Amino acid sequence: MVVVSTSHGVYDGTALDLRDTTVAAADLLAAIRGESPTSLDVTCSSPTPPHDVLGHVSLDDAIPSRRALLAAAARSRGHTAPQRPAYDASLRKLRELEVPTVDVATARKRVADAGAEEAQLRERMATLRGRLQARRETDAETASVTTDLTDTAARLSEVETERIAAEQALDRQERRAADAREVRQRRLELEDRVANLERRMRASLAERISSVFDEERDSLGSLDALGSVEFDGADADVSVTSDDLLSQLVAVRVADLAAPVVVSASVFTDARSAARSLDASVILL
């Protein structure tokens, strides 16, 4: 039993027709899946993960591949792929693997800045020493130059210390950068492994119910409504064919979905025929 409370009224049953309302498919799906607060109140069985793939029949969204549809249907029927343990382990490692943030550029700039100031101060020191020597040779006053020389020497000592510290920090950052590159490479390898295992899982799951899918496809292939679907009215950026739509409908039919399926494509004349054809609770939009 499904109960949908809207501003237009309350609808209940296993075959609901909301085509005369302004309810949006996105809001209805969010309410069914409990994803975000909406103005709708939907009471139904909790959806399982395959509902994300099979829960919406629409011409405005790209329909998943046949393999992805079959894999989702197989999962809904309790099938698991032999690659699942390896996939879960690899995915867990991938999520735990964080590439450290390294700022080598800033560390290099600090070294360069300290080095430039140190060079300027050394040049200043040489100039002051020459000036002091010249004053001594002419018995001129040397106090101000001596003070300036002392202050410059003190600042030079500070800058030398800063430059050494900056070089040490740069060395640490460069070592961290090397470590980060290794981690990044490891992450790429794990991403490839996860993607490969995911493809193998889909193939394995799809194979489990391919024969059932083909049988049901033959029975649904004669669905009269498919001939009247306006594919030209679909989103211009989404390519959907009658074969794509039929595959999605068959996948929904062979799946075991607890939560209702939202059908916003004009395939069925009424909600009851949709529920019978899909063997599922249905909400027409």
Number of separate helices: 9
| Spatial extent as radius of gyration | 35 Å
Indicate the percent of residues in helices.
Answer: 55-70%
**Percentage of residues in DSSP E strands:** 5-15%
What order do the SSEs take from the amino end to the carboxyl end, as H and E? Answer: EEEHEHEHHHHHHEHE
Uncertain runs: none
Number of domains: 2
Number of strands: 7
Shape descriptor: elongated
User: Which strands sit side by side, in order, in the main sheet?
Assistant: 3-7-6-5
Distance between the termini: 18 Å
Secondary-structure-based class equals alpha/beta
Major sheet attributes = 4 strands, parallel
How would you briefly describe this protein structure?
Residues 156-207 form a coiled coil. The protein is an alpha/beta fold and 285 residues long.
Structural commentary:
Residues 156-207 form a coiled coil. The structure is a single chain. With 285 residues, the protein is α/β, with parallel strands linked by helices. It folds into two domains: 2-79 and 209-284, no CATH class; 96-185. Helix content is 59%, strand content 8%. It is built from nine helices and seven strands. The strands form two sheets. The chain has a four-stranded parallel sheet, sandwiched between helices. A three-stranded antiparallel sheet has the order 2-1-4, covered by helices on one side. Strand 1 (2-6) and strand 2 form a beta hairpin. Helix 3 (66-76) crosses helix 6 (143-208), helix 4 packs antiparallel against helix 6 and helix 7 packs across helix 8 (242-254). The protein is elongated. The two termini are 18 Å apart. The mean pLDDT is 90.
